[in-house]
């Protein structure tokens, strides 16, 4: 679609500090992004500026330096760790005679490589097209005007206008497909709401260990790797909690600083699992040098997608990489768990997280004794799914007498649904079958 230089794998990296000092951790993250995209770094050009140059972003002198570096290293691609305007990107390509990619384009390319499911591929394509639609200006400079004169009159639509129209049509089609997927996900959430199953969403910076923790909790076997954006497609699994209602755990895409807005918009169906969660597990790399900055970046994205009112539980992961840190739980002044320190890789401290989740969702658990009629088999099955059966005895009339430990309010709502009232006696914990059912 563009008359642009071909992109290769030999990449010259450019990172400037705009109005501040350059952070070494940001440079490391930039290099990891380039590596995740499959490019081979042949050099890194750094510098400082008070403000970006309107034409080249880097200024005339630095653009000349980049041109020399491209020639000296045989670079086929120049990657900026910054968001470039379409005009800046085009001016740089003309000046450097090679392909130029900004940070947004780099992250979109990584997402395209990582997408596995049909939904994930649709979301990435939509984000890429939205990004590309802003780059059409000057992309067809030789065709952006209608020709006049005998033998030169066109059909009335320039190539640029045609491209814009085709891109718009494809974006509309992708949005319709993703809306259908979002409707299907909404139906799943409504079914979980009817069953009163809460969702716990794993959120955090990319490569913080969310998928490793997800696999440790649920034995789901989802793809995990020590790389950026290893997970794009959300995965949901049921997690049984001790003496508490079961929950659904959702593994989601990782966040990163300066996350492209095109991605936030395209992944709205995926991020809806986070917006509708009852609890967010903020997974943090406890061994990371930029832990506080990563936390702030994640909270910024969470605020952008509208999760301000959802409860948080911080999970400090990778404590196996810390010398003097063992598994532990931090509580606030009210005694509620606020932070769990663990290692998802080794499993140390994971049981503390499970106990913390059980404590959060346990509610007012009581031991209740119920008399069920022979026709209430569905209610009996529900009690087995959502409570802990202490004792049970089959009666002569075909019914059951049961002693169960369960959230009292949840049981009250379920009994109301069956047209019954909660009028059960409460036997003591550990009651034997004979004592509980007489």
CATH class of the largest domain: Alpha Beta
CATH architecture of the largest domain: 3-Layer(aba) Sandwich
| Assembly state of the chains shown | single chain
What is the count of DSSP helices, taking H or I runs of 4+ residues? 14
User: Count of DSSP E strands?
Assistant: 14
Largest sheet: 7 strands, mixed
* Widest beta sheet: strand line-up: 6-7-5-8-9-11-10
Task: Write down the overall mean pLDDT.
Answer: 78
Tell me roughly what share of residues is in helical segments: 40-55%
Low-pLDDT residue spans: 1-6, 138-154, 424-438
What count of domains describes the coordinates? 3
Q: Output the radius of gyration.
A: 28 Å
The third-level CATH topology of the largest domain is Rossmann fold
Structural class: alpha/beta
What is the H/E order? EHEHEHEHHHEHEEHHEHEEEHEHEEHH
Backbone shape: elongated
In whole angstroms, the N-to-C terminal distance is: 80 Å
CATH-wise, what's the superfamily of the largest domain? P-loop containing nucleotide triphosphate hydrolases
Could you tell me the strand content as a percent range?
A: 15-25%
Family: Belongs to the TRAFAC class OBG-HflX-like GTPase superfamily. HflX GTPase family.
Protein name: GTPase HflX
Cofactor: Mg(2+)
GO molecular function: GTP binding; GTPase activity; metal ion binding; ribosome binding
């Amino acid at each position: 679609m563009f008359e642009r230089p071909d992109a290769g794998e030999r990449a010259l990296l450019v990172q400037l500090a705009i109005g501040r000092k350059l952070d070494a951790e940001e440079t490391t993250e930039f290099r990891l992004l380039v590596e995740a995209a499959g490019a081979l770094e042949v050099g890194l050009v750094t510098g400082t500026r008070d403000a970006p140059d309107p034409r080249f972003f880097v200024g005339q002198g630095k653009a000349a330096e980049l041109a020399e570096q491209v020639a000296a290293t045989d670079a086929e691609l120049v990657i900026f760790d910054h968001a470039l305007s379409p005009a800046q990107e085009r001016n740089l390509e003309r000046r450097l005679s090679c392909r130029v990619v900004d940070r947004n384009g780099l992250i979109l390319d990584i997402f395209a490589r990582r997408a596995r499911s049909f939904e994930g591929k649709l979301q990435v394509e939509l984000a890429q097209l939205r990004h590309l639609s802003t780059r059409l200006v000057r992309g067809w400079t030789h065709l952006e005007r209608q020709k006049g004169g005998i033998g030169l009159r066109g059909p009335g639509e320039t190539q640029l206008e045609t491209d814009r129209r085709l891109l718009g049509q494809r974006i509309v089609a992708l949005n319709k497909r993703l809306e259908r997927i979002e409707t299907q996900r909404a139906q799943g959430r409504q079914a979980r709401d009817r069953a009163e199953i809460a969702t716990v969403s794993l959120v955090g910076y990319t490569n913080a260990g969310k998928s490793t923790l997800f696999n440790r909790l649920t034995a789901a076997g989802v793809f995990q790797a020590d790389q950026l954006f290893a997970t794009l497609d959300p995965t949901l699994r049921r997690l049984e909690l001790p003496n508490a209602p079961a929950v659904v755990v959702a593994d989601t895409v990782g966040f990163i600083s300066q996350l492209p807005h095109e991605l936030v918009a395209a992944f709205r169906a995926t991020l809806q699992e986070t917006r509708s969660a009852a609890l967010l597990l903020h997974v943090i790399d406890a061994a990371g040098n930029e832990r506080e900055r990563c936390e702030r970046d994640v909270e910024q994205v969470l605020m952008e997608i509208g999760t301000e009112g959802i409860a948080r539980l911080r999970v400090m992961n990778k404590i196996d990489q810390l010398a003097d840190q063992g598994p532990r739980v931090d509580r606030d002044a009210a005694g509620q768990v606020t932070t769990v320190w663990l290692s998802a890789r080794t499993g140390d401290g994971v049981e503390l997280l499970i106990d913390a989740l059980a404590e959060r969702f346990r509610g007012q658990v009581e031991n209740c004794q119920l008399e069920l009629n022979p026709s209430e088999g569905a209610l009996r099955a529900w009690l087995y799914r959502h409570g802990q059966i202490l004792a049970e005895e089959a009666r002569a009339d075909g019914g059951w007498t049961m002693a169960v430990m369960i959230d009292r309010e949840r049981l009250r709502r379920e009994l109301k649904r069956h047209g019954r009232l909660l009028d059960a006696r409460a036997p003591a914990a550990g009651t034997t079958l004979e004592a509980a059912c007489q």
